[in-house]
Design goal:
15 helices; four-stranded parallel β-sheet; binds iron/sulfur cluster; binds 1,3-dihydroxyacetonephosphate; 3 domains
Length: about 350
């Protein structure tokens, strides 16, 4: 989506897309009246955005009103971090969760970065502390220390390289060290082990942290149930899911990876083992295909809405946005820069 499209075109884009997707709060299609009301607020937000030199970035799990109405760019964690790094605007409104806005601030220390709900937690990011990582570093001095981007700035500051769901397998595979400390996603660590085993690569993964409170609820029984009911369905899942869910999926990848897989697939029906919001983007991009939502919602992502975005834009001068200690941000930036280097070198 281009930032410089006219407000009229933007409203048309909203109509075209919202008319194709399910409103997950009501379970039905958006009515024409609902779309009209949304369009009025969206037009106001897009005007404020231009007047205030602001860029709106949104993760795919956000509401379709944000994705199709006011976002200048929608993406997975990797693409959003990259877009934030290239931002020309003085103000970045990041519709996502706290670690994503922090990452944008680390990459843009001189810009104002605002998360509309101000704070929005992630069970992974709060699942490990910098002290715990430092203790692991001491115990395994020869290990490379990787942190999933779903981690705090303090944790990133004590790690070697940051990874996302879109590049984690390649970065691990290309790591020279035999030992890797991986934090904070315990299930992703198990999925990395399975990936390495499949490729015949021997490495020790030392994992610590937590699980995603959204993806960790999907289980094999649910997956088998879906397979029985819809034998022709392709199963797609996020690497934050349990290893047995990933093992029995047709595709495992980031949100952007899942969107790409569906777009390129000839299959007509897909079961989505990820956050429900992704269904809206899938529906909008693939009108002829059917999606079985597996029903999990990330409450933190849903705390971003048109009202708090509008309020942020109206009060931009009074808001400070994300604040990080300069020294800490510089150290954390090293891990993110290493991720960009290790990902781009692989292409
Ligand atoms: P992606 O980078 O795949 O979009 O994942 C982010 C996330 O938080 C998934 O739960
Ligand atoms: Fe964090 Fe899970 Fe929400 Fe993603 S879906 S932001 S990992 S809690």
């Amino acid at each position: 989506m281009q930032k410089d499209i006219s407000l009229e075109d933007k409203t048309k884009y909203l109509f075209d897309n919202l008319s194709k997707v399910t409103n997950i709060t009501t379970g039905s299609w958006f009515s024409l009246k609902e779309i009209n009301d949304i369009a009025n607020q969206v037009t106001q937000i897009n005007k404020l955005k231009r007047e205030n030199d602001a860029l709106i970035l949104a993760h795919y799990y956000c509401s379709p009103k944000i994705l199709f109405g006011v976002a200048d760019f929608c993406g997975d964690s990797y693409a959003l971090a990259k877009k934030a790094k290239e931002a020309k605007e003085q103000n970045i409104i990041f519709c996502g969760v706290t670690f994503m806005a922090e990452t944008a601030k680390i990459l843009n220390p001189d810009k104002k970065v605002i998360l509309p709900p101000m704070t929005a937690g992630c069970s992974l990011a709060s699942g490990i502390t910098a002290q715990e990582v430092l203790a692991l570093r001491k115990k395994y001095p020869n290990a490379k220390v990787l942190c999933y981007i779903n981690s705090s700035a303090e944790v990133k500051a004590v790690c070697d390289t940051c990874v996302t769901s879109g590049n984690v397998f390649k970065i691990v595979e290309n790591t020279k060290q035999d030992q890797i400390i991986f934090v904070p996603d315990l299930y992703m660590a198990k999925n990395i082990e399975a990936y390495l085993k499949n490729k015949g690569i021997k490495k020790e993964i030392i994992a610590a942290g937590a699980t995603c409170c959204v993806h960790d609820k999907f289980n094999l029984a649910q997956l088998n149930d879906v397979k029985n009911k819809y034998p022709e369905a392709k199963i797609i899942s996020h690497p934050e899911c349990l290893p047995e869910v990933c093992k029995n999926s047709d595709f495992v990848g980031s949100t952007a990876g899942m969107l790409k897989f569906v777009k390129e697939s000839n299959a007509k029906i897909f079961a989505v083992f990820s956050e429900w919001g992704l269904i809206n983007m899938l529906e909008a991009q693939n009108p002829g295909k059917k999606f079985i939502p597996c029903g999990r919602i990330c409450a933190s992502m849903k705390r971003n809405n048109l009202n708090n975005i509008e309020s942020v834009l109206k009060n931009l001068t009074d808001l400070q946005g994300v604040i990080l200690d300069k020294n800490l941000a510089q150290k954390a930036k090293q891990a993110i820069d290493n991720m960009f280097k290790e990902t781009e070198n692989d292409r």
